[in-house]
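[Automated response] Your request has been received and processed.

Submitted sequence:
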Amino acid sequence: MTDFQQPSLDDGGLDARYGFAKRVAKEAAERAMAFYVRRGSLAVAHKGDDLQDMVSIADQDVEAFIRGELARHFPHDGIVGEEGGSDGLQARCIWVIDPIDGTACFVNGLHNWCVSIGLLVDGEPLLGAIADPNHDELFHGFVGRGAFVDDTPLQAHGARHVREGLVGVGTTHRPGKEHFLPFLHALLDQGGQFVRNGSGALMTAYVAAGRLIGYYETHLKSWDCLAGLVLVREAGGRSSDFLRGDGLLGGNPYLVAAPGVYEQLAAMIGPSLDAP
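Generated structure:
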């Protein structure tokens, strides 16, 4: 087993990691874009029997790039990656990365995908960066320092009722999908509207930016949302207890929302939101 040392966590060490996340997210997104423009020639496979869960050579290449940068700059930090698995989870600093969040959109020519890089310190989300090269936007944030899209501060929506904005939604073939249609029914009954763009990281960032008033997913993985959880917190939004239990590796039901509608949306979801 690798001998992981405890990193320096003074302000300099944390600042270095924040700068790293922003830089590498942008560089990884540029690398992914080079594959995207020639996506017709990419080899694409499905993970197991889930035809919704795709992986391409681009995902693998971009994650290898991010892991290589981490090995160079922070070799003693742990990592959880969608394609390469986890290592060093006993470290105080654990990076949670998704090289291309929204692979199905990526391979089908839809501009709803991004690179997501988040950091846990002592088990809590501390910073994150989400790079969207199709719209030339970098969402980023650091606990206690705010959240931004490029240099513009993010602020959650001021909605007090679901009628006042759009709710992002998502589901897969994983357990929990049976809760999806009842939620949509309840949302529509109360005058709400919904969208799905295929990227959990982007929809979380849009909640932080006030573009969506909420986002519910019946079951999400940590690499899809860890970076975005920091943004939502710093933008004044609320989130469910995603990291409870085996959330880091196994995922959980997921809700982020503007503060004025969080309870309303959570009530529509019901007890399944907090189920193990």
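Summary generated for your ticket: Helices lie at 11-36, 57-73, 103-107, 180-189, 200-208, 222-234, 247-250, 262-269. The first helix runs from residue 11 to 36.
If you did not submit this request, please reply to this message.
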